[in-house]
Amino acid sequence: MSHELLTLLCWNHLKSMRPSPTTVGDECPTDPSLQFILVLAFHIMPRKDEAQKSTAQAGSAVSNETILAAVNSHKDDLSKVYTLVDTLKKSLEGRLDSIEARLTTLQTEHSEVRHRLDDMDSALTSTDARVSALESSCSELAAANGLLKKKVDDLEGRSRRQNIRIVGLEEGVEGVRPAEFVSKFISELLGQDSFPKPVKIDKANHTLRPKPLPNERPRIIIARVHNDRDVMNILRLSRQQAPLMYHGQKVFIFPDYTAEVSAQRQAFNTVRKRLVEAGATCSLRFPAKLQVSLNDTVKSFTSPTDAERFANSLSHIK
Fold it and tell me: 2-35: string of b/e by CB count within 10 Å (b at 16+)?
C-alpha cells in the first residue's frame, strides 16, 4: 500500500472519531493522541519504501555479479569473436585497398577515354565541316558538268548535222576514193534530175570497227555533205523514194545523229503518229523539237509528255 493511500485512510479515521467542528477552519485535530497517530502514519511508509529500495539495490548487485560471471564464462568465445573480427577487418581492408587501386585505374582510364572522345568529337566536327564543303563543291561541279555535257552534246550534234549514214552498201564498193563514190552514188540513186550538179562531199569513211568477214554485215559509210540544202534534199528524197535499191541491194540513208539525240527524237514517235492521225502536220526539228501545225495553229514541244497532253486534248475535243 502506498504512502499517500495510508495517510488518507488515517486522516479519514481521525475525522470520524472527533466531533464536528464548530467553525469551518477548525479541521486540524488538537488531541495529542490523534496527532501521534497521524505522525506515525506519515513515518511508517517512508521507512517501508526505503526498505524496498534497499532490497532492489541488493537484487541489482546480485544481477551485476551474475552478468560478470556469465561474461567471464564466455571470455574465450569473446576472444575468438574478437580475433575473427580482426581477421575480417584485415581482409576487408585488403579488399578495400584492391578496390581503391582498381577505382584509381578506372578513373585514369575513364579520363583517357574522355580525352579521346573529345578528340574524336573535334575530329568529327572538322570532318563534318569538310564534308559539307565537299558536298557543296560537288553540287556545283555536278551542275557545271551537266551544263558542259549539254554543250558538248549540242556541239557534237551540230557538227554531225551535215553527215549522212549510208547502210547496206557492199563492203569495199567505194574503192580507194570514197568521197567521189558517194557523190556519184547519190546522183545515181536519187536521180540526176534532183541533183543537176554533183553533190559535193567533203569526206567519207566507214564506221570505226574491224573489217567484217564475207558473210558478215558490211560496215556503215558516213559521208559529210558540204551544203546543208543538199543534206535536206538527200534525206527528204530518201524518205519519199523508199525503199531504195542499188545494184539489186536495198540501201538506207539516215541522218548521223548522236545516240542521245536519236533517243530524244525516238521518244516522239508514238505521239507524232497520233497527231498525224488527228490531221496535224508534224516535223521534228534538231535536236528534238516537235513542231505541230493544225488548223492554222503552230505549236512546238520539247517534251513528249507535253505533246501527249496536247494530243489528249484533241481527242477530247473530237
Answer: ebeeeeeebeeebeeeeeeeeeeeeeebeeeebe
- Domain that residue 112 falls in: 89-160
Number of structural domains (the chain) is 4
- Same domain flag for 118 and 179: no
Answer for the pair 186, 199: CB distance below 8 angstroms, yes or no.
Answer: yes
Q: Which of 219, 236, 256 is the last residue of a domain?
A: 256
The pTM of the full predicted model, rounded to 2 decimals, is 0.53
Is residue 235 within 8 Å of residue 190, measured between CB atoms? Answer: no
**What is the full per-residue pLDDT of the chain (318 aa) written as tens digits?**
444 544 555 555 545 554 444 444 444 445 544 454 454 444 444 444 554 555 555 555 557 777 777 667 767 777 787 788 888 888 888 888 888 888 999 999 999 999 999 999 999 999 999 999 999 999 999 999 999 998 998 888 888 989 999 999 988 888 889 999 999 999 999 988 888 888 999 999 998 888 888 888 999 999 999 998 999 999 999 989 988 999 888 999 999 988 888 899 999 999 999 999 888 899 888 888 999 998 888 899 999 999 999 988 886 555
